[in-house]
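pls design
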């Protein structure tokens, strides 16, 4: 049996118009010792049929049909079925850059890496060409410096290390031997953050690759990242908990001094902004009740303190001030203004 170097895992759900774009970007790679595992997560359109047709035409493709269980469960199914030395992920409406898998495999092998993270571009509806895309990329190829976590952690955050799963190559034995799977209670949103935060201190064989190798499309009518789901509330709380645990562990294990308050305020604003996503029908009372519940979590107490507030920008100062005084309606109002500012900024700035 030919050795499989990389197993590519692709969850599929109601993406009939985009699947072939994603699949072709995988199967047309220069590296041929691969397998593509497509998990049809209970699609109600023609996606499942298209997956079967693709598998019939290329023996490297495996299709698994399962009832709709969410993206975390679908990725876990793919991980358990994978036979490759390494595992990578791709969303069913995105694409790999040409020649990517061969290059990243050689880089991982030469460094005996257990994790390799690489750059990506975010292409939104209003972008006319790739030059307008928002690019996230590490400044240089290197091994993550665990002994310099005060500086390194911030760089990793800003470079998109933790936020996404599809910008990473993971050694399969490393995942399986450490039972590193996705939290299946998290159906939509933040599952990538939770996974990456959970695995980061399990290895010190972690490397960065300074090339942009992945095109992520944010299509307003199709992208799940732009739409609200009732599971987002649970997912965000899980993400906060695992990130706080990670920072605490890094501070203790590597004698770092990472300031949690700088991340806590971002998470709290994220909690406010989630209600601005498309299709959100949560009532004002429901939104206020969630804000109250979140504000009582131990991880968020630090952002209410006056000393902490001095570190924040003007917008974050306002959020901290209103939260301390329990002005929940005011928090929702300024969140609406802030959200529209973010959208406008994305549209007018060339990244």
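designed seq:
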């Amino acid at each position: 049996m030919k050795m499989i170097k990389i197993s590519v895992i692709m969850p599929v759900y109601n993406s009939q118009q985009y699947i072939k774009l994603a699949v072709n970007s995988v199967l047309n790679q220069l590296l041929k010792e691969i397998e593509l595992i497509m998990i049809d997560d209970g699609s109600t359109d023609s996606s499942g049929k298209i997956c079967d047709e693709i598998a019939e035409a290329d023996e490297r493709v495996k299709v698994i049909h399962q009832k709709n269980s969410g993206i975390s469960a679908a990725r876990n199914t793919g991980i358990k079925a994978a036979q490759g030395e390494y595992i990578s992920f791709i969303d069913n409406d995105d694409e790999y850059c040409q020649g990517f898998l061969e290059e990243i495999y050689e880089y991982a092998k030469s460094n005996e890496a257990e994790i390799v993270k690489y750059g990506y571009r975010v292409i939104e509806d209003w972008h006319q060409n790739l030059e307008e895309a928002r690019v996230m990329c590490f400044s240089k190829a290197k091994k993550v410096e665990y002994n310099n976590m005060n500086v390194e952690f911030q760089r990793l955050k800003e470079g998109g290390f933790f936020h996404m799963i599809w910008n990473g190559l993971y050694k399969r034995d490393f995942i399986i031997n450490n039972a590193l799977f996705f939290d299946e209670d998290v159906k939509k949103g933040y599952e990538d953050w939770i996974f990456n935060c959970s695995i980061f201190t399990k290895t010190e064989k972690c490397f960065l690759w300074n090339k942009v190798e992945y095109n992520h499309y944010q299509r307003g009518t199709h992208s799940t990242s732009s739409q609200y789901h009732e599971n987002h509330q649970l997912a965000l709380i899980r993400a906060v908990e695992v990130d706080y645990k990670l920072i605490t562990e890094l501070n203790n294990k590597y004698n770092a001094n990472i300031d949690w308050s700088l991340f806590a305020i971002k998470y709290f604003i994220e909690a406010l902004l989630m209600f601005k996503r498309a299709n959100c029908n949560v009532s004002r009372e429901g939104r206020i009740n969630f804000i109250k519940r979140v504000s009582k979590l131990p991880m968020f107490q630090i952002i209410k303190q006056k000393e902490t507030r001095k570190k924040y920008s003007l917008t974050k100062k306002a959020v901290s001030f209103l939260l301390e005084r329990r002005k929940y309606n005011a928090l929702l109002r300024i969140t609406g203004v802030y959200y529209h500012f973010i959208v406008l900024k994305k549209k007018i700035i060339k990244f």
